[in-house]
Design goal:
The chain contains eight helices and eight strands; from the N terminus they run αααβββββαβββαααα. The protein is of the alpha/beta class. The radius of gyration is 43 Å and the shape is elongated.
């Protein structure tokens, strides 16, 4: 967050080159007729096409639906080559939940444009490329921090062989690109480095001395803008940073709220488990203490009975040795009592320690099991929700495609009907002409 604020201040107070992530900056570099050679070089380096892109022509980037109620689309850049291949180039600054769906929706417009009216079209299509430069990372791709280039085409899910190569989607996740100047090897590396760092640079890097980059840096230099262009760029830059600050604020707030919820839940769970452990330990200690007291009382009682019996027997057998025998018996029995009591206390203390340790381990296992079960349940809920969303979206796509097919079939039926009526009218005219000719001959 701090680095973004420093970059914002630098761009606002003396940045040398325009920010390509702004609407004006991106279209200034890639979307003008005068700079179409820059776009051609970028696309050629990005897509690594077999042939060279030539005679690139910009098209109307606003696409309307075929009917009034159908939704249209506005592309950042829309162009085609001399052989009819079409390119959609999008700079997407903010993450959208269904951006992949939006990319597919956009690609349908150049497909429909190629449909030829009349019965002779054989459905052959020219290649369509959708290039999305992303200032964010898809949630599905977070676990692949080194992969920032995604080249998507229709393929067989079993053999992984390309099934259809005329519909291509390219996604560049720019936050993952972290190469330094001394690591740039290909034109592709250099283009991504320029997009990522242009607004931070004060001079053209030594690694970017090729003619195309010399031209790019000249176009991007803010001092070369007209006053009108400079005002438009300043507004575009302000809108970009306002939007970026809104996003950062929302993310920070969401993270803070989530952390508070996590801290509260953890604290509550720990407190509950601690209470359970304390209760279990207190109960175990009390039970063991009762057992010790009972055992000591019983041992003392048994020993006392033995003493009484021995004393009575000694008195009966040897009255003269009563004092000596009693003293000796009492001493011996007292030692035995002390030893027995000490041993009993020691044994019971060991039992208490063992029981307490076992209770603590059992409770810890219960905590681990409960937490694991909660995590699995939550993951199952997430998987179920994602699956349901995918099925719903697929149903929507199938419904839309079916409706489009029905509309086209209705239009073709109308045309066939009109053609039949025309042929019937022509036949009637031919018959009248023949009748007239026969009358003239008579």
């Amino acid at each position: 967050m701090a680095s973004k604020k420093k970059l914002q201040e630098k761009e606002s107070n003396g940045g040398k080159y325009i920010n390509p992530y702004t609407d004006f900056g991106f279209k200034k570099l890639f979307g003008t007729e005068a700079n179409k050679d820059v776009l051609q070089h970028f696309l050629q380096s990005l897509l690594q096409l077999d042939g060279k892109l030539t005679l690139l022509k910009y098209l109307n980037n606003a696409q309307l639906g075929r009917l009034k109620h159908e939704r249209g689309a506005v592309f950042d850049i829309y162009c085609e080559t001399d052989n009819g291949e079409k390119f959609i180039v999008e700079m997407q600054k903010c993450e959208q939940k269904f951006f992949k769906d939006r990319s597919l929706f956009y690609a349908t417009f150049p497909i429909q444009e190629q449909a030829k009216r009349g019965p002779t079209w054989n459905f052959e299509l020219k290649a369509i490329y959708t290039v999305a430069i992303l200032d964010f990372v898809f949630d599905d791709d977070i676990d692949e921090p080194e992969k920032y280039y995604y080249h998507i085409q229709l393929s067989d899910t079993d053999t992984h062989e390309i099934f259809y190569d005329k519909l291509t989607f390219v996604y560049l996740e720019m936050p993952k690109f972290r190469k330094n100047e001394d690591e740039l090897e290909t034109f592709f590396d250099k283009w991504l480095y320029v997009l990522k760092n242009l607004s931070r640079l004060q001079t053209r890097p030594q690694a970017l001395q090729e003619r195309i980059f010399q031209r790019l840096f000249h176009i991007a230099e803010i001092e070369n803008l007209t006053l009108k262009e400079r005002r438009i760029y300043d507004d575009s830059l302000k809108n970009y940073w306002d939007m970026q600050n809104v996003i950062d604020t929302a993310v920070e707030k969401a993270v803070k709220n989530m952390q508070n919820e996590i801290d509260f839940a953890v604290e509550k769970a720990v407190q509950n488990k601690q209470n359970e452990i304390n209760f279990a330990v207190e109960k175990a200690v009390q039970n063991k203490q009762n057992e010790i007291n009972f055992a000591v009382e019983k041992a003392v009682q048994n020993k006392q009975n033995e003493i009484n019996f021995a004393v009575e027997k000694a008195v009966q057998n040897k009255q003269n040795e009563i004092n000596f025998a009693v003293e000796k018996a009492v001493k011996n029995k007292q030692n035995e009592i002390d030893t027995a009591v000490g041993e009993a206390v020691k044994n019971k203390q060991n039992e208490i320690d063992t029981a307490v340790g076992e209770a603590v381990r059992n409770k810890q296992n219960e905590i681990d099991t409960a937490v694991g079960e909660a995590v699995r349940n939550k993951q199952n809920e997430i998987d179920t929700a994602v699956g349901e969303a995918v099925r719903n979206k697929q149903n929507e796509i199938d419904t839309a495609v079916g409706e489009a097919v029905r509309i086209i079939e209705d239009e073709l039926a109308e045309k066939d009907k009109a053609l039949a009526e025309n042929e019937k009218a022509m036949a009637e005219k031919d018959r009248k002409i023949e009748d007239l000719l026969r009358q003239l001959q008579q």
